[in-house]
Amino acid sequence: MHRSRELSLARFLRRLVLIGLVALAVPYVLILAYASPVVHPVSTLMLADLVTLKGYDRRWVSLDDISPNLVRSVMMSEDGQFCRHGGVDWGEMKAVVQGALEGETTRGASTIPMQTVKNLFLWNGRSFVRKALEMPLAIAADFVWSKPRTMEIYLNVAEWGPGIYGAEAAAQHHFGVPAGELTRGQAALLAAALPNPITRVAGKPGPGMRRIAGVVERRARNAGDYITCIYE
User: Fold this and answer.
1) 142 conformational bin, left if phi > 0, alpha if psi -120 to 50, beta if neither
2) Is the pTM of this model over 0.85?
3) Alpha helix segments (H runs only) across the chain
4) Where residue 107 falls among pLDDT bands split at 50, 70, 90?
């Protein structure tokens, strides 16, 4: 009887480990699949909205149909070294770790590839577990996807309000224009909203958000060589 219980427990643990390994492997398989431009990925938040019957608005558009104003604004706001790193900005990460060890308030250091894989495969909220899963996924995604494809996916899965995902739905919802016609000011407001799109409403910005958007707009205007991996 005792031997039988041990065997049953061993089988259960083996199955549990196998399920865990499969769960860890699935995102890497999907990264390969998402390299194809005909595939339009959805995020975990979109899936959650479907499961809870909330629904969502997302209208996939190619990078060519998204205003360069938004691409520049998002890059300079979220990840100024996007064209230079390999998925993880190790210099920024080192500075954040050093600051945390010295007792400073922690900040993000998430790159656009890191945010993209988080949106596609992981969950919101800060945790060392999520970050440990996020970094190798970001490195793999940056290796498999081109920089334009990474930006295209990110701008089509980013959240810009409750049930509002992607640049096209955001542009239509907040400003009543297609994503391809966003002005510099509108693009800067959308970029400024990304850290917290629930409380930062691009279409109804307060004074603080307008100040942030002004900084983003100036940086985007002077982006220059920072965006050469998207626009040669």
Assistant:
1) alpha
2) yes
3) 2-33, 44-51, 68-78, 90-101, 112-121, 128-144, 147-157, 167-175, 184-193, 207-221
4) low
